[in-house]
Amino acid sequence: MELHVRYEGDDDPTKCTARKLARFDLAELHRTDRAAPRGVVLNPHADQALSPADEPRAADRGLVALDCSWESAERAMFTLGGIHRALPFLVAGNPVNFGRPMELTTVEALAAALCIFGYDDYAEEILSKFTWGHTFLELNEEPLRRYADCADSTEVVEVQGEYLDRE
Q1: Counting runs of H as helices and runs of E as strands, what totals does the chain give?
Q2: Would you give the DSSP letter of residue 43?
Q3: Which residue has the higher pLDDT, 15 or 99?
Q4: Interval 18-76: pLDDT, tens
């Protein structure tokens, strides 16, 4: 599965996970919306949750994340073509946002989607480039497995509800 990132370049380049993925040829960076493929776009503002049912389109057209600073990650930023899906409840494993719900780095978001699609080895591969990468998978092992076992977005939202009720 091809990984693509709509790259804004407005955050600290030394901490940018998308740039590091690109250096290892694990993701392709795109500077404009037009350059990014019309695949499955990871969008926290999307109306529908990502589920295994989205895997065929992602496998065919690519998985796309937006890399920008949290300060500029507003709804208007997500004007990319493709089908937009929100990741379900997960906890950050990166050192900056450790333990915070839904404040994932670009690599964490891509890895989460890969796990939900059943590409666990690929998720481990992209996270292996970061000293803290394994932490994300450890923190989210159960929810990622449960989301991957769902048939569609409705089931993912039901499972997510169980985690949100605990918060």
Answers
A1: 7, 5
A2: -
A3: 99
A4: 999 999 999 999 988 889 999 999 998 899 999 999 999 999 999 999 887 555 555 54
- Please give the backbone phi and psi of residue 9, each rounded to the nearest 5 degrees, phi first: 70, 25
Structure tokens at 107: 């690599």
Q: Does the pTM of the predicted model rise above 0.85?
A: yes
Please check whether residue 61 is in contact with residue 37, taking contact to mean a CB–CB distance below 8 angstroms. Answer: yes
Distance CA 122, CA 139 (A): 18
Number of other CB atoms surrounding residue 147 within 10 Å: 27
With contact defined as beta carbons under 8 Å apart, do 101 and 90 qualify? yes
Integer CA distances (angstroms), 28 to 25, 56, 124, 145, 150, in order: 7, 20, 18, 27, 29
Q: Phi/psi of residue 18, each to 5°?
A: -65, -45
